[in-house]
């Protein structure tokens, strides 16, 4: 008898399980709009030209060796990542009160932040938006932090429930951690306006709530890296403290390379130094030090102004293609006379559209049209192309009529 005999079969991850089901479907018209990964007009994964070039340079550089990185990762990568999210002229960087550690993409950055907060922050409560990316609750809960939610999405308007959000943050325990999507909220595609961000900032600072930004889509929402960092930067500009988890999965297309960074903005350089020393103690027993390849690609690109420029052009092209898919899907539904107001498709931003389709409509579309998406009705606009828009529009039309 196996010593593991008692183990029960676990269910598939609700997001990654969509791809498992998709792979099993033999239909030639099948369409995977589940996972948040960019696809070209031809439906293919994309490696950016600038990434290929950086990799070539790394391979050709015979002085490069495979030694371990320090516990906190590649120094250049960390410095440049902080600069990318906080801005080149950020006073926090100039005053040396930011500590940045290289982590395993966005997920790993959130996890290191969660473990650090559990050990070194006295308020073990985090508020996450409702709804949010499916992994948030588990990441924090498994680090011993109590997870509650704040109202975010309003199904009636398919927009932000701003009043509800302010009420819930207003009644949070003083000092609680608040998870904020820096831009392109997943799964809803609904972001606060700059005016609303300012109100959120004032409220959070007045209650000493600690902001933990998840920045998984910088540049992907608007096509502009600075615009998409606005929310984070207003919280740093007020001199207060915050955490930021960055991912290069989407904006550099480095998904499987697992490149990300956690920055903790502190009040003083002295605190930042001590925070970093403790981050090392979190990381060392988990995986000792992070992998070298992906971070080296990012550092090359961020360091070289020509390559950086090239990256912003390729990034904008991805963002623009997604935005054009929104318009195409909206137009297709309008032309078919599909009942309902579909303007949220063009109003929402980032990789996803929160369609408002319910669980039954989603399973209908999977069964009859071989279209795969998460059961909450979220579709990845990045997985769509001009060729597949009509098929999706047909399926949505049939599902709602
Ligand atoms: N946060 C959000 C909101 C996300 O959508 C994602 C990716 N789906 C992540 C974090 C982390 O992704 P990764 O670990 O691949 O960087």
Automatic annotation (TrEMBL):
Q: Which UniProt keywords apply?
A: Aminotransferase, Pyridoxal phosphate, Transferase
Locate the transmembrane regions by residue number: none
Q: Which InterPro entries match?
A: Aminotransferase_I/II_large (IPR004839), Asp_trans (IPR000796), NHTrfase_class1_PyrdxlP-BS (IPR004838), PyrdxlP-dep_Trfase (IPR015424), PyrdxlP-dep_Trfase_major (IPR015421), PyrdxlP-dep_Trfase_small (IPR015422)
> Which coenzyme or cofactor does it need?
pyridoxal 5'-phosphate
Q: Give all residue intervals belonging to the Aminotransferase class I/classII large domain.
A: 30-396
Please name the GO terms that the record assigns under molecular function. Answer: L-aspartate:2-oxoglutarate aminotransferase activity
Q: Name one GO cellular component term.
A: cytoplasm
Q: What is its EC number?
A: 2.6.1.1
Q: What class of enzyme is it?
A: transferase
Q: Which reaction does it catalyse?
A: L-aspartate + 2-oxoglutarate = oxaloacetate + L-glutamate
Further information? In eukaryotes there are cytoplasmic, mitochondrial and chloroplastic isozymes.
Q: Quote the subunit structure annotation.
A: Homodimer.
Q: Which family does it belong to?
A: Belongs to the class-I pyridoxal-phosphate-dependent aminotransferase family.
* Protein name as it appears in the record: Aspartate aminotransferase
Organism in which the protein naturally occurs = Penstemon smallii
């Amino acid at each position: 008898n196996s010593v593991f005999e008692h183990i029960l079969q676990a269910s598939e991850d609700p997001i990654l399980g969509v791809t498992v089901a998709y792979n099993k479907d033999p239909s030639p018209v099948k369409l995977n709009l589940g996972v948040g990964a960019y696809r070209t007009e031809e439906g293919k994964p994309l490696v950016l030209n600038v990434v290929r070039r950086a990799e070539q340079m790394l391979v050709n550089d015979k002085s490069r060796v495979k030694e371990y990185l320090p516990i906190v990762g590649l120094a250049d990568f960390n410095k440049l990542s902080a600069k990318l999210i906080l801005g080149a002229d950020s006073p926090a960087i100039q005053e040396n009160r930011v500590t940045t550690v290289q982590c395993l993409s966005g997920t790993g950055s959130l996890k290191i932040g969660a473990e650090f907060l559990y050990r070194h922050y006295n308020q073990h409560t985090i508020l996450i938006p409702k709804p949010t990316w499916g992994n948030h609750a588990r990441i924090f809960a498994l680090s011993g932090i109590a997870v509650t939610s704040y109202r975010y999405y309003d199904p009636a308007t398919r927009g932000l429930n701003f009043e509800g959000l302010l009420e819930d943050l207003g009644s949070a325990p003083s000092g609680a951690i608040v998870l904020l999507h820096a831009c392109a909220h997943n799964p809803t595609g609904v972001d606060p306006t700059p005016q609303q961000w300012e109100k959120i900032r004032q409220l959070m600072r007045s209650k000493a709530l600690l902001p933990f930004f998840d920045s998984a889509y910088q540049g992907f929402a608007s096509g502009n890296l600075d615009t998409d960092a606005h929310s984070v930067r207003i919280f740093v500009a007020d001199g207060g403290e915050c955490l930021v988890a960055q991912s290069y999965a989407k904006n550099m297309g480095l998904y499987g390379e697992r490149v990300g960074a956690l920055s903790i903005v502190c009040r003083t350089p002295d605190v930042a130094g001590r925070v970093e020393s403790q981050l090392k103690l979190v990381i060392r027993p988990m995986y000792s030090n992070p992998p070298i390849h992906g971070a080296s690609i990012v550092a090359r690109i961020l360091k070289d102004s020509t390559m950086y420029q090239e990256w912003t052009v390729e990034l904008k092209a991805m963002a623009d293609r997604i935005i054009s898919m929104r318009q195409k899907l909206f137009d297709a539904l309008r032309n078919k006379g599909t009942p309902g107001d579909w303007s949220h498709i063009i109003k929402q931003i980032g990789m996803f559209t929160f369609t408002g389709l319910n669980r039954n409509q989603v399973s209908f579309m999977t069964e009859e049209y071989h279209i795969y998406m998460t059961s909450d009705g979220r579709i990845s606009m990045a997985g769509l192309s001009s060729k597949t828009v009509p098929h999706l529009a047909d399926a949505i039309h049939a599902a709602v009529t």
